[in-house]
Amino acid sequence: MVRVSEGPLSGIVVADFSRVLAGPYATMLLADLGAEVVKVEGPAGDDTRGWVPPVRDGVGTYYLAVNRNKRSIALDLKDADDLAVAHALSARADVFIQNFKPGGLARFGLDYPSVRARRADTIYCSISGFGAEGGAKLPGYDLLVQGMSGLMSLTGSPDGPPFRAGISVFDVMTGLHSVIGILAALHHRDATGEGQHVETNLLSTALSTLVNQTSAYVAGGVVPNRMGNAHLSLFPYEPLETGDGELIVVAGNNGQFRKLAEVLGHPEWADDERFDTIGKRNDNREELRPLLLEALSTKSAQDWFGILTEAGLPCGPINTVRGGVELAERLGLAPVVEIGGVPTVRNPIGFSATPPSYRSAPPALDQHGDEVRRWLAGDAPLPAASTSDEADEADGADGADGADGADATTGTEADRG
Questions:
Q1: Which residue intervals of the chain bear CATH 3.40.50.10540?
Q2: Coiled coil located at which positions (predicted)?
């Protein structure tokens, strides 16, 4: 085992042949927990290095968001010497992760059977857009999956067009599911010595992530439609106008609604036969909404936020991303961690004994190529990743990688923030 860091995954080596978002996000999470991640890039680098603006020191902040705690080595898989390095890395790694189109790495001897032949207990994670069967040839961009999964049909005003979510939500969720699968496979390997192939795809992740909306159809026979900011089953559960702006107001059960009615000065609403159950409030929301709006119009959103929060009622303002970061700072969550002069967002998981670590800034292209080659050749141990300012000087680059850019299956070329 390679142990050059602390953390619950210390000693685990990850060969990261993924790019853009889903895979790199997954491997960053593994790296935060102590895994040693070697990021394999084509000669032009990960596409997101050049996705600007926004930019910091010549590098797209998209790249900076998901690539800390990694080593970078540039390999052209069409070059025999570089391919030999890739094969050697696959033989040494505990985990191999890639997001090429299904079958795209077979010609390089980097598909699951080939990697398994080099290391029988490897954990091999494949990320695709639509699975390895009927959807194998479909490109896996998050925006496409948002549309094809049904999410966009749920997003926007009832009388308006469908909208995409503000982030590449299914890339992120697929990354999370990939980590869950990898951790479970590692646990199984610890118990049995057996490796395995872990597969995730954006469409299956999307249908799982839609949760109650998917269940409304498969279990209830109901096809959900766009409701703006409203909730299919609850009211109030949406932004409501106050005296000077909107405030999100939630009453998720009868007790909360009773307390809300009391705070708003109308305790009789809780016993009104139109509003005394969740189902009735939902059915009669068009009668209840104007009553709520009239009461809320008497004070500002900030005033109501204080009053309702003091009463223990769920509510909140609609912030910008800046407002969200500042809120986390005020609450003592310390959301920003600076590594080598690069601000990054803190890993959201807390551990009492083995907290996430922030060892190195997102690497420059091929920053660690020589040391990784020496390690694979047996000439030197893999040195500890160190925090430095080198990543601040990395040059952005775009274009297809040496393995054939068309083979990368999960990305979000239109999503840059």
A1: 13-222+360-377
A2: none
Domain 237-321 belongs to what architecture?
A: 2-Layer Sandwich (3.30)
pTM: 0.88
- pLDDT, one tens digit per residue, over 73-116 is 999 999 999 999 999 999 999 999 999 999 999 999 999 999 99
For residue 35, give Cα distances in angstroms to 5, 31, 250, 356, 388.
8, 4, 41, 10, 19
- Report the distance separating Cα 77 and Cα 127, nearest Å: 19
Query: In which residue ranges of the chain is CATH 3.30.1540.10 found?
Result: 237-321
Contact 1, 9 (CB under 8 A): no
- The residue annotated as part of the active site, out of 16, 47, 82, 171, is 171
The pair of structure tokens assigned to 120 is 């029988």
- Contact criterion met (CB below 8 Å) for 189 and 116: no
Domain boundaries 13-222+360-377, corresponding CATH code: 3.40.50.10540
Residues 179/97, Cβ–Cβ less than 8 Å? no
| Residue in this structure with the two tokens 């709520």, named with its chain if needed | 292
- The question of whether 404 is a catalytic residue gets the answer no
pLDDT in tens, 339-383: 999 999 999 999 999 999 999 999 999 999 999 999 999 978 887
Element (H, E) at 250: strand 246-250
